[in-house]
Amino acid sequence: MKQTFFGIAAAFAAAGIAAPAVAQDDNIAVAYEEDGKYYTANDIPTFNVGDDGTVDWYTFSGFRRYHSECHVCHGPDGEGSTYAPALKESAIDMDYYDFFDAVVNGIKRVDAADNQVMPAFGTNANVMCYLDDIYVYLKARGADAIPRGRPAKKEKKPEAFIEAENACMG
Predict the structure, then answer these.
(1) Are residues 106 and 138 in the same domain?
(2) Number of C-alpha atoms within 13 angstroms, CB side, residue 122?
(3) Which of 13, 50, 154, 160 has the fewest C-beta atoms lying within 10 Å of its C-beta?
(4) Is 73 part of any domain?
(5) pLDDT surpassing 50 at residue 166
(6) Rounded average pLDDT over 125-136
(7) What does the pLDDT look like over 139-165, one tens digit per residue?
(8) Residues 38 and 60 both lie in one domain
(9) Is the Cα torsion angle 146, 69, 65, 90 positive or negative in sign?
(10) Is residue 72 part of a domain?
(11) Residue 166 included in any domain
(12) CA-to-CA distance for 34 and 29, rounded, in angstroms?
């Protein structure tokens, strides 16, 4: 069951009217929460950070998964490296589905002016089972909603996360 939060999406929901499409600049605003996972009005996973700095479980999980699989090339905290670009910046501009495609299928742009090669992670359960988590973590970093380093406070791990993780990881 969707729980609507304050804001324009809540006003539309209360009136029984479908909310309008969210502009690209608003692709991180929380519209509702379901089983401890936060979403935009367009049903795209997003982060939630409390006033005291507490991050939602999925953002915390994204921090952990990013640093186990992605930071080797893209640098700690999505800051980039000499080897690969900063993902915290591109995560703000990149559409969820483009992000998903890039991770699943990889990227290969090699020509006289470009040399970008990212391997495909579509068969890596350590990435695919947590892809939404990595996405929301990078969105939070790109929006400067969380500082560099391990988040100091996190919400409790939702039961839905445990069930999805067990189903995905086997």
Answers:
(1) yes
(2) 9
(3) 50
(4) yes
(5) yes
(6) 96
(7) 999 999 999 999 999 999 999 999 999
(8) no
(9) positive
(10) yes
(11) no
(12) 15
pLDDT tens digit sequence for 47-94:
999 999 999 999 999 999 999 999 999 988 888 888 788 888 888 888
> What is the residue-wise DSSP string for the chain?
--EE-SSHHHHHHHTT-PPPPPPGGGTT---EEETTEEE-TTS-EE--B-TTSPBPHHHHHHHHHHHHHTHHHH-GGG---SSS--HHHHHHHS-HHHHHHHHHH-EEEESSS-EEEE---TT-HHHHTTHHHHHHHHHHHHTTSS-SSS-S-BPPPPHHHHHHHHHHH-
* pLDDT at residue 118 greater than cutoff 80: yes
Q: Residue 13 has which token pair?
A: 């929901």
| Total of domains in the chain | 2
Query: ∠ CA 168-123-119 to the nearest 5 degrees?
Result: 140
β-pair type (45-46, 3-4): unpaired
Sheet strand arrangement including 3-4: 3-4, 32-34, 37-39, 45-46
Which domain, by its residues, includes 30? 1-46
